[in-house]
Amino acid sequence: MTVQRNKLELQRYHAELKPVWNSFVGTAKNATFLHQREYMDYHASRFTDDSVLVFQDNKAIAAFPCNTVEDEVQSHGGLTYGGLLIGKSVHAATVVEIFHALGDHFRNNGKRRIIYKAVPHVFHKYPADEDLYALVRVGARLFRRDLSSVVELVNRPKLSDSRKNTARKAEKAGAVVVELEDFTEFHGLLTHVLSKFGATPVHTVDELQLLKARFPEQIRLFGTLIGDRLHAGCLVYDCGHIVHTQYLASSDEGRQMGALDHLLLDLIEKRFVDKRYLSFGISTEDQGRVLNTGLIAQKEGFGGRGIVHDFYEWVL
Length: 316
Fold this sequence. Notes:
The protein is an alpha+beta fold. 31% of the residues lie in helices and 32% in strands. It folds into two domains: 2-139, Aminopeptidase; 150-309, Gcn5-related N-acetyltransferase (GNAT) (Aminopeptidase). The chain has helices at 18-25, 37-40, 92-108, 130-137, 161-172, 184-195, 205-214, 252-257, 259-271, 293-301, and strands spanning 2-5, 8-12, 48-49, 52-56, 59-64, 67-69, 72-75, 85-86, 113-117, 141-152, 176-180, 219-226, 229-238, 242-250, 277-282, 284-285, 290-291, 305-315. Strand 12 and strand 13 form a beta hairpin. The chain is elongated, with a radius of gyration of 21 Å. The model has no long low-confidence stretch (mean pLDDT 94).
């Protein structure tokens, strides 16, 4: 169904619009490669995609990646952040109109609310907080806030003594940081670590290999080897000016030797020194109500400081 409002035209995404979607995402001021259809569609069987492209004068000016669960819209349930992706030339008044049009579109399709996950500002390529203003205008409310840690690499605080000392242990043990192409050993290590907390990796090893094949420059795996054994690993998502540590894992022996600290220090001081930010991800639990102080202290030891991941509820 196509919805029109004040010269805006909304079209529900379908496969024939893939080139248009990807072309727009490549230029949007707050999009990353996670919003490309090759990434979003790898787990298409798990979600009912209900994404929308917004056109003005037959040109795509915005995109809303989302899925639906019964009468609820989620932006997007398979992504850490979704939000409205906005073209660089789009003005604030138009963004407000887009939100009103989205409300009409989903309301007409029997939806009752939208769960909106804003793109954290450090992932913006250019200022793009017009959506946060528009959310207030349409009556949405902030209902969840997670705290994430980001290192500003060009101006980072001094490394804590504890992180330095731990990293030196691995160096003395002969640790070497290498880039890996095969995810099997790392996924096994990650699975072992998460099993202690009753959890499993979001991605299977086959999914990781698939995504790596689709995004070889953006998805990169680094590991700490001591001898011929992998003792720590970090899966990095390279979003251009910012890199994000999607997964971190260390063996029990590697933890004692500081293998992960050695690896992270290598990424910060050598591999990605030309980037602006390194993102460590959230340290909150129970939908933001609990701060994992031990986890965030480790990230702060590397210079990580807080940014928020905000979730809004918009009742239609």
